[in-house]
């Protein structure tokens, strides 16, 4: 699974990729739930993240095309396979032509464009409760608002000293003030879930309305970070805890 970083294109590596993708494509090609082949996550976008790729995008674009267009795509588009759409990366602006008879020519450019292809959207600065914060995109293939897990889960996998000091979950924020009392920390974890639930309601309702907007035609949304990769809710909630409002998980909200 390729994500968020440039990859090489020397022949030994390409042969290994070709073999693995071919094997996996044969394994899952017949599944009815398979809707699209995705080459990678955010690699075209990541060209701007690193000084080496940002300074020489042409070189890294050649590497990208050799790996995902010339190697991965033929491995999943084989005679006898189900005819399933292929995108070389997400987000992207898609190919120049969607006619299967035409050669695959990638539409390079701003991979975060709202006018073409799909969009990944995160905003840790602006008002998450304002519908105008969210892009008028064709397809939002990844977006999210962070929250913490339920308190009774959180305390099983953390230490009490972690409840009183700044423990960031993301470089953009989601830390806690110094010296926060444990009861206040419990309330804070719950409020992050309320905020997440309300933000998702605003965003998804907004995009559903944009399905009929001529300048958007938003046709789908995939949310990310519903409690992130937190532990399973494997223990019973103490009696009366939900009534006290301190143990409610995002799934309950």
Automatic annotation (TrEMBL):
<dbReference type="GO" id="GO:0004567">
    <property type="term" value="F:beta-mannosidase activity"/>
</dbReference>
<protein>
    <recommendedName>
        <fullName>Beta-mannosidase</fullName>
    </recommendedName>
</protein>
<dbReference type="GO" id="GO:0006516">
    <property type="term" value="P:glycoprotein catabolic process"/>
</dbReference>
<dbReference type="InterPro" id="IPR017853">
    <property type="entry name" value="GH"/>
</dbReference>
<keyword id="KW-0378">Hydrolase</keyword>
<dbReference type="InterPro" id="IPR050887">
    <property type="entry name" value="Beta-mannosidase_GH2"/>
</dbReference>
<keyword id="KW-0326">Glycosidase</keyword>
